From TrEMBL:
It holds the Pfam family UDPGT. Belongs to the UDP-glycosyltransferase family. This is Glycosyltransferase. Coiled coil: none annotated. It comes from the Eukaryota. Keywords: Glycosyltransferase, Transferase. GO terms for molecular function: UDP-glycosyltransferase activity. PANTHER family: GLYCOSYLTRANSFERASE (PTHR48045:SF3), UDP-GLYCOSYLTRANSFERASE 72B1 (PTHR48045). It comes from Rhynchospora pubera. PROSITE patterns: UDPGT (PS00375).
Length: 177
């Protein structure tokens, strides 16, 4: 619900992919939210599977809220999209450090614990989520810098898989060996 509030209060269009709401209460609230967003022509909610790579590659995408799974990070980097990070378990917290602190192509909502300790996680407030959305996709200098760094990483990722690139060469060596 906090994500829904943040999205609604932000000045940003969005696509929100939700695998399946578990709770009947949440499903009802999600239906109401979806109706309002459709009416306002502000957001799109996709229930179930969505073509994430295709969506990330679209020019209109300004940011990506991710749980920091490795595949999603690679997909965002190769699309040149900055990230809003919200890790949940295991290596996702380390992946977040890479995205936010080292590559500097993302900002965190501030999740601190996950896995079996998830129920001890303090709620991330809607205002915090909205603020991070604005930091990443907004017009400010921080978001602009993230977008520039993400674009540089995109070009490096493309170069790596081209003939002569590091990934291309490494795969070729593996096959030859």
């Amino acid at each position: 619900m906090k994500i829904a509030i943040a999205l609604e209060e932000s000045d940003r269009d969005f696509i929100w992919v939700i695998k399946s709401p578990n709770e009947t209460c949440f499903a009802h609230l999600l239906d109401e939210f979806e109706t309002r967003m459709r009416k306002e022509r502000k957001g799109l909610i996709i229930r179930g599977w969505a073509p994430q790579v295709v969506i990330l590659d679209h020019l209109a995408v300004g940011g990506f809220l991710t749980q920091c799974g490795w595949n999603s990070i690679l997909e965002a980097i190769t699309a040149g999209v900055p990230m809003i990070t919200w890790p949940m378990i295991a290596d996702q917290f380390l992946n977040e450090k890479l995205v936010v602190d080292i590559l500097q192509v993302g900002a965190t909502v501030g999740a601190k614990v996950g896995g079996p300790y998830f129920e001890n996680q303090p709620l991330i407030e809607a205002e915090t989520i909205k603020s991070v959305i604005e930091r990443v996709v907004g017009e400010g200098m921080e978001g602009e810098a993230m977008r520039k760094r993400a674009e540089v990483l995109k070009e490096k990722a493309k170069a790596a898989v081209q003939e002569g690139g590091s990934s291309y060469s490494d795969l070729k060596s593996l096959i030859e060996d």
